[in-house]
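In response to the reviewer comment on reproducibility (Comment 2.3), we provide here a single inverse folding case reported in full, input and output, so that an independent group could reproduce the run without further information from us. The structure tokens appear first.
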């Protein structure tokens, strides 16, 4: 006698929507390199790169979930088949049936208009738990804005670098917000700039005050927005100068994206609270537990924060740590570069691969001996990539320190994927970079960038980022700055 058990999909609101097959044409993402510095240093310094991650996601996925059909049940069986039935449904392009325990698509591509199907190849005397999703071939729900041109400001009035209007009111749900841009100021002790991401004109998500010595550096911000379904939203990347009107602040390659998270299989924390420590060993600022619903799940990690030191000559350090596996996911060591009031950017992307049990992530910070390190505006999100909506994503990660002493470009990490359907792709990369040079020589700065390579040529996705390390900062050998870049591309 065959043992059967059916499950109603509507009781599993966090289950993933259906998706088509992966959309993977020889397309290559390179992570970071070190090109000709325009003036080769007379002494060969070592350039370091660590924790480099490239991710490629498909923002017009083959399928997007609708509500579940009602009345899903098992209407019959044989020794090796189950007959599944459900009520009539409208507006769909098809149905998929999933395993309730692993979220794996079991029966896919059921045509629109059907009210039943037969699952074959089963074992006798076995319990099978299933749920169903209807789907349409519309694009993944997201909003995107970019402004790649260089913009400048010479006063202390906030200027918009990029604006994302999420209007009219978006569908209710949780949206992952990511914003990146390259930032720089004038080569002057008082020429530093202010940079931030704000929601609805007044809510500051992340805020940095940076002195970059005329070199482009990276800014990143993120959060999870719970949209009401009745209100519009607006995000703006903004910048201004420190002194009016003597100095100029610049931005370039600004981009903001809001992605409707298609299932409840994610964890996040948004902690704006300022914390402080005088400890020279890492302490936790914020902790997030990632809870995979299935076995061998992959997760996309998005993270941003702001750090500060109580003294301009002494560094502050921050890292995102996988405590469960004792693994550093992102890492930054910075000094305030001339003013203890500076707030600096920390963050980046990462991936958790094949997890089957809870993983604890901690945003940690530490100080230089005798001084205080501050951290605030901590945002961590972990999104389950094993949900079928993300089918076809590509990623690559390098978590060990790499070094080189050449001004010739090298690829630190590469991701290759194949494009079979013309559509929009979200491409992003991040790393921390540093140098062994202890002199204040701008030509000795390490350089990082993200590029896309295909048969038609190479496209650099964002301005080159240079990390300038102060030569007068004591005991600062491990200084690291964040490089991050994000772009949505139409690929064919």
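Designed residues, in position order:
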């Amino acid at each position: 006698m065959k043992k059967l058990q059916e499950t109603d999909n509507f009781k599993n609101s966090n289950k993933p929507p259906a998706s088509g097959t992966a959309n993977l044409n020889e397309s290559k993402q390179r992570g970071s390199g070190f090109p000709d510095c325009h003036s080769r240093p007379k002494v060969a310094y070592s350039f370091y790169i660590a924790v480099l991650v490239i991710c490629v996601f498909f923002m017009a996925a083959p399928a997007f979930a609708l509500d579940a059909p009602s009345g899903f049940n098992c209407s019959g069986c044989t020794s090796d088949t189950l007959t599944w039935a459900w009520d009539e449904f409208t507006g769909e392009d098809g149905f998929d049936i999933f395993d309730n325990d692993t979220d794996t698509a079991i029966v896919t591509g059921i045509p629109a208009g059907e009210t039943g199907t037969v699952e074959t190849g089963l074992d006798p005397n076995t319990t099978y738990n299933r749920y169903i999703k209807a789907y349409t071939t519309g694009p993944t729900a997201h909003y995107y804005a970019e402004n790649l041109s260089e913009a400048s400001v010479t006063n202390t009035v906030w200027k918009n670098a990029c604006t994302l209007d999420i209007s009219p009111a978006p569908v209710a749900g949780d949206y992952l917000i990511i914003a990146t841009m390259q930032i720089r100021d004038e080569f002057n002790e008082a020429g530093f700039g202010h940079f931030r991401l704000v929601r609805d004109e007044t809510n500051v998500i992340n805020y940095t005050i940076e002195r970059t010595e005329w070199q482009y550096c990276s800014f990143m911000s993120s959060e999870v927005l719970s949209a009401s379904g009745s209100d519009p939203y607006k995000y703006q990347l903004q910048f201004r100068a420190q002194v009016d009107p003597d100095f100029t602040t610049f931005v370039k390659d600004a981009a903001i994206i809001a992605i409707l998270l298609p299932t409840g299989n994610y964890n996040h924390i948004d902690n704006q609270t300022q914390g402080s420590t005088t400890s020279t060993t890492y302490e936790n600022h914020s902790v997030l537990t990632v809870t995979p619903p299935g076995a061998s799940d992959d997760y996309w990690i998005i993270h941003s924060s702001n750090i500060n030191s109580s003294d301009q000559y002494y560094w502050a350090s921050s890292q995102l740590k996988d405590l469960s596996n004792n693994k550093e996911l992102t890492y930054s060591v910075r000094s305030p570069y001339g003013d203890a009031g500076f707030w600096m950017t920390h963050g980046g992307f990462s991936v958790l691969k094949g997890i089957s049990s809870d993983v604890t992530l901690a945003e940690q910070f530490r100080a230089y001996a005798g001084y205080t390190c501050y951290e605030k505006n901590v945002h961590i999100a972990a999104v389950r990539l094993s949900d079928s909506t993300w089918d076809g994503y590509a990623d690559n990660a390098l978590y060990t320190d790499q070094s080189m002493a050449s001004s010739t470009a090298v690829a630190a990490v590469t991701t290759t994927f194949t494009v079979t359907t013309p559509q929009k792709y979200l491409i992003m990369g991040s790393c921390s970079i540093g140098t062994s040079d202890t002199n204040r020589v701008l030509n000795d700065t390490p350089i990082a960038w993200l590029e896309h390579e295909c048969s038609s040529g190479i496209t650099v996705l964002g301005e080159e980022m240079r990390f300038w390390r102060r030569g007068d900062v004591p005991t600062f050998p491990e200084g690291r700055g964040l490089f991050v870049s994000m772009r949505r591309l139409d690929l064919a």
